[in-house]
Amino acid sequence: MATLRDTRNRITSVRNTSKITQAMKMVAAAKLRRAQTAIGAARPFAEQLQKILGNLATGESEFVHPYFEAKKELNNIILIVVSSDRGLAGAFNTNLLRLTAQHVAALRASHPDVSIQVIPVGRRAVSALRKHVHEIIREYSDIFIKLEFTTAQEIAEIVSDAFLAGRADRIDIVYNQYVSVMRQEVRALQLLPIAASIIPDAAKKTSTVDYIFEPSRGDVLEQLLPIYLNIQVWRTLLESNAAEQAARMMAMDNATTNARDLILALQLVYNRERQASITKEMLEIVGGAEALSNN
Asked: How far apart are the first and last CA of the chain?
């Protein structure tokens, strides 16, 4: 049975833990505000660039960029998995790795002979994917300490070179999309070939008017497509960063609330034990006094 000292020490320990989780919540909230600003600035540019490329790709032209060429048979797939560098973010990484496993299983079911290579981004993805038999092309750990656009450019260049050289038939990226503070959704996005991801939606809104381009449509696509790929990778990193901070803030808020509830419960136990101890001492004093009076 726990003594008063044990209960008091436990209350102190839980109270200290609640202070830590409260501080971590405040830090995550501050980082989330910066991440929301960054993703809010990146989304409109990425969406507008996608519309432009959709209109260009659906126009009448003999030029076909290799980025739009879908392979009939998939022999090699590169999978980019974006996780966090640290834990204490609820089910953020668990849900991501679960969807990654499901996505890989679906790819192997539809293409039994496919070879899957991975690019883990974030320390949690690196440590988890090292345990599997996937071939790792490049690892990126601790990039979210100071997230930079050059990291997205480097990743985009690696997958672009592999796709253009024929070493990869398809490029997918799995990440957490920031929806709101309370909601983050794990998404699997096909980066290359990009025709399947942007042409159908754009084609529905494309008018029947054909434009004259100067320079040619092909030259415009040659300039825009690398930018589009960089922006898509950069956007997923920003989405994942914002989703991570939101998940961590909610997890630390829940942990703080649970710690405070536990402190109240322990305080009741402590008061009950203290009252029982006092009652026991009083009974011992009364019993001793009666024994002395009888003697």
From this structure: 36
